[in-house]
TrEMBL record:
Protein name: Probable membrane transporter protein
Keywords from the UniProt entry: Cell membrane, Membrane, Transmembrane, Transmembrane helix, Transport
Matching InterPro entries: TM_pro_TauE-like, TSUP
Chain ranges passing through the membrane: 33-54, 75-96, 102-121, 142-172, 192-214, 234-255
Biological source species: Flavisolibacter ginsenosidimutans
Predominant location: membrane
């Protein structure tokens, strides 16, 4: 399966913006996946989804590289939750090849509506880091986050990065900047889990995936630098915009406008 240069350029443009958005607050899949499905209507959905995991991985990797240089990371916590997130994502992608994920979208629509309203109403949400929970509780909550959202990322995908950031803020009391940095590391693990599954099943179109990977990496690099430079207030606003975008996407899927 191949695509002409014009459509490949459109895919790369979408990948760049997806990488940029994903590096700041997650949710890049809201740009990349719909664009790819429109541009590649005759391609099998599994091949489109599988191919997009490569640019998602490289874009996330570029963002991680930037965050690692500027943000303090909890490597002990990340070692555990990234390992679990890998296996959870693999399991989610495996299940996706056997059943439909449509039944979860109405539930997520309600959850994300609450998230958007809460984040908007609570102005200090994610604005500062609070070290008020024990290491044991932090690890327990991190394990919970990695298993649930890792599985979700492999099974459904769009918005997983934003939900991860929310979880790091609400459950581990990180600020937006540290939550974004740690969420990217977990995203890296979930992308690898899905890639292993889709590659084994032959669902990756490398002639499309590799050019998009370069574009997504450039976007991830730029987005992470901007997030680090602008800080928590900017990330909060960006987060709200992306959450609203996710809500619109799920409304479309649930109510079939």
């Amino acid at each position: 399966m191949t695509v002409d240069l014009f459509h490949l350029a459109l895919l790369c443009l979408a990948a760049f913006f997806a990488g940029f958005v994903d590096a700041v607050v997650g949710g890049g899949g809201l740009i990349q996946l719909p664009a790819a499905l429109v541009i590649l209507p005759s391609f099998p959905v599994a091949s489109v989804v599988g191919s997009l995991k490569i640019p998602s991985f490289t874009g996330t990797g570029a963002a991680v590289w930037q965050y690692m240089k500027k943000v303090d990371m909890n490597w002990k916590l990340l070692a555990v939750i990234c390992t679990l997130a890998f296996f959870a994502s693999y399991s989610g992608s495996y299940l996706l090849t056997h059943v439909s994920n449509a039944f979860m979208k109405p539930v997520l629509l309600v959850v994300l509506t609450v998230v958007a309203v809460y984040t908007y109403a609570k102005k200090d949400f994610g604005q500062k880091e609070e070290h008020d929970i024990s290491n044991d509780k932090e690890l327990q909550r991190g394990i919970f986050i990695s298993l649930i959202i890792g599985f979700y990322d492999g099974f459904i995908g769009p918005g997983a990065g934003s939900i991860l950031i929310l979880a790091f803020i609400a459950l581990l009391h990180f600020d937006f900047l540290h939550a974004s940095a740690h969420a990217k590391m977990v995203n890296l693990a979930t992308n690898i889990g899905s890639i292993v599954l889709f590659a084994a099943k032959g669902n990756i179109i490398w002639s499309i995936a590799l050019p998009m990977a370069v574009a997504n990496s450039l976007g991830g690099f730029a987005g992470a630098k901007l997030a680090i430079a602008k800080g928590n207030k900017f990330i909060r606003i960006f987060f709200l915009v992306i959450i609203v975008g996710i809500l619109i996407r799920f409304c479309w899927d649930v109510f079939k406008f």
